[in-house]
Amino acid sequence: MIAIEDLAVAYQRQKQEHNALQNVSLTVPQGTVCAVIGPSGCGKSTLLKVVAGLIKDYTGTVRINGGEVSPKKLRIGFMPQNYGLLPWQTVAENIRLACRIKDGWSEEKAAKMEALCQKLGLTDLLNRYPQELSGGQQQRVSLARVFLLEPDILLMDEPFSALDAITREEMQDVFRDLWEEAGITTMLVTHYVEEALYLGQQIVLMSGSPGTVAEVMENRWQGSRQWKTTTEFFAKSQELKEKIKAMGARTL
Ligand code: ADP
Ligand code: MG
């Protein structure tokens, strides 16, 4: 479980403090996906970085499974927007990387990696380098790496944004299937309301300047492909887009 209470983060810019986040409280129950949406610049990435342990200068409390945010003690799966693959390492090396650093390598891990690569269609790409892959393929490598790690929590920063619409929907399904098997507590930042409505059990709408939680919605249809084709889904999407627009921001 991720529990955030009264979180505030300020950045120093031109010798002045700028509040990026203020009064942010939210709880992500164990084994659920929390989708975070909101206008550009409202502090979504800042929020993920705090939970990932990358930003330590904050006030308020952040607890993961009842303990402090400690990348040393916890397994934190962080997927940055640009996939985070190392260009000088092959696909296979990239997938093994996080696990190797955390636990060393084992037969068991190798078997799990093989199964994951089969599922993600990566078996024939293992000796390639990231720049020899399409965006969708790179995203699959990134997913294989993070699911091989079997993290305590998974943090994804606009993971599918750089993909074309068809590939993005495909990758949402790939993620949904992997997630359903593993049931990892996940925070997924996105600016696509449809993605939030498809993948999040909980949808947190943030507003900006300074970034805070404007609304929390429960979404009991999470993961249902059928739900995506209903008029209710369409109406909810429109409603969310209007809310984000009303905050004075662009939506995609
Ligand atoms: P989002 O991910 O929602 O687009 P960010 O968390 O990246 O928003 O940024 C929130 C605010 O903090 C923005 O106004 C941004 O310009 C500012 N900001 C982000 N990173 C830094 C930084 N390292 N130094 C100063 N200001 C920053
Ligand atoms: Mg961001």
UniProtKB/TrEMBL annotation:
Q: Which domain of life is it from?
A: Bacteria
- Entry GO MF terms: ATP binding; ATP hydrolysis activity
Q: Which UniProt keywords apply?
A: ATP-binding, Nucleotide-binding, Transport
Q: Which Pfam families match?
A: ABC_tran
Q: Which residues form the ABC transporter domain?
A: 2-233
What InterPro entries does the database record attribute to this sequence? AAA+_ATPase, ABC_transporter-like_ATP-bd, ABC_transporter-like_CS, ABC_transporter_ATP-bind, P-loop_NTPase
| CDD domains, A to Z | ABC_NrtD_SsuB_transporters
Name by which UniProt lists this protein: NitT/TauT family transport system ATP-binding protein
What is the originating organism of this protein? Selenomonas ruminantium
